[in-house]
Amino acid sequence: MLTALGILILTIGLTIYGYCRYRFRFADPIPNASLPKHIFFGHGLSFRRINPVRIYWVLKRAYDNKERIFKIAFGPMPVICPIHPDLVQKVLCDFATIDKPYFYDFTQLTNGLFGGPYDLWKAHRKVLNPTFNLRILNSFQPIFNDCVNTMMRNIKAHVKPGEPMNILEFTSPCTLSMVTRTSLGGRVLEREGTKEFCEGMESLLHQLGIRMFNANLHPDWVYRYTRIYRAEMKARNFCCAWTDKILEEKKQELAKKKEDMNNNADSKEENEDNEVSYKKPQIFIDQLLTIPLPDGRPFSDQEILDEIYTMIAAGNETSAVQSAHTILLLAMHPEIQERAVEEILRVFPTPEQNFNQDTLKQLELQERIIKESQRLMPVAFILGRAAQHDIQLDDYVCPKGTIFILNLFEMQRRKEFWGEDAHEFNPDRFLPENSKNRHPYAYAPFSAGPRSCIGSRYAMMSMKTLLTEVLRNYKLTTDIKYDEIQFKFKVSLHLAHPHRVFLEPRNLYGGSK
């Protein structure tokens, strides 16, 4: 009996393997990744029992391939990896590859912009685009200012001469406060359970990052019996309960507001309120609760929660980690740091001058610094797409169902696109005269094409506000060498060590600040 059962299992396994080899034979001519390859497991063994640091190094080794396009094989199933901007542009812009692959479902954000299918994404994006216009973004500036001022008081309370600080421990609460206040309204981080919510979000990202690059954890029937699943569900259940309560409160608040408006007979007062409404922060959840979708129906509770989670997770990760990366890079490059300070003095000649759209726009060098930080250390550096129709890349026709992985970290450091000094920190490569002949898709830190990040301007405004205030108050140094930076993958790109920075008080305004 045991022999017969073994033969049956082997026969089924070989049949499935043979079908997959036939199904994916289109990828045979595509060059392999620069990883060891097993006859049955492909390159998958390189990803076994993997941790966040090892994920980064395995991906880096895979992308040592100098081809325009190559494949990583997980068993008989190939994942196609375009690296040339021509091919990246086609994958990001072609309708055939506008959907996300199945592993985006692991986030359980399939009812929002991040992981939703094309039809849902299209409806949501059409409605939500206006909620990120400049007038609404400008209404958030007082919130940005208040959150940054709170961060500066926190830094001042903890800074000690001659002792380094992990700057991410200060930028992360700051940007989380920004994104929660602009998404949910009020001072939600002062609520009970906030610390546990923040820890839960961090745990979720950690568990999801491990699962995505462990193919053996992809089947739900396997994953559900792992400690990673138990840790994820513990964090997810708490975070959902926390935000569910806020959503219910907001719905009750909106119902009361509508009732009050119906009882208000003074239409003139209502019109005046509409005229000044944009002077108040236009909170994201309030808009989700009031704006109808193209088919006339309101956002469902699950759609609202998925969009809120997307804003909190993506918004906080992008701004917090990228700001910390940028501060560390400035601490490593004192000459560029001083140029940035000189620009701040020109734009903000007195400490009382306010942040607004015009002053932030004048910080051109600082914007180039942030862009160079995003080029070298992009937070959202892995993008996935799935083919809904056949698509041709160079000489290869990739059929429906093909999965594509784009590695922006590697593409944005390729010497053929960025020159021999591609690995060096040089913000002036983003001067207009240095950018005019560059391929438009050689740089895509907020993704690109139709499904690019809806919050890119939000992120730039918040990061400029944060960086300006840090540079106005402190001179930055570090004992970490540029070529000693180590990375790890945790859904996004993090450092494998603290963002260790020394902060020396800066007397920028001659004692007036």
Question: Span from first to last CA?
Answer: 84 Å
Q: How much strand?
A: 5-15%
> In which range does the helix fraction lie?
40-55%
Q: Would you count the extended β strands for me? A: 11
Rough shape? globular
Report on the biggest sheet: 4 strands, mixed
**Class inferred from helices and paired strands:** alpha+beta
Number of helices: 20
Strand order of the largest sheet: 1-2-7-4
Low-confidence stretches: 267-276
Give the averaged pLDDT, no decimals.
Answer: 88
Radius of gyration: 25 Å
Topology:
Elements: H1 2-23, H2 52-62, E1 69-74, E2 77-82, H3 85-93, H4 118-128, H5 134-139, H6 141-158, E3 165-166, H7 168-184, H8 194-212, H9 220-223, H10 227-263, H11 267-276, H12 284-290, H13 301-332, H14 334-347, H15 357-361, H16 364-376, E4 382-386, E5 391-393, E6 396-398, E7 403-407, H17 408-411, H18 415-418, H19 432-435, H20 456-473, E8 474-477, E9 487-490, E10 492-495, E11 500-505
Parallel strand pairs: 2-7
Antiparallel strand pairs: 1-2, 3-11, 4-7, 5-6, 8-11, 9-10
Helix pairs in contact: 6-7, 6-20, 7-13, 8-10, 13-16, 13-20
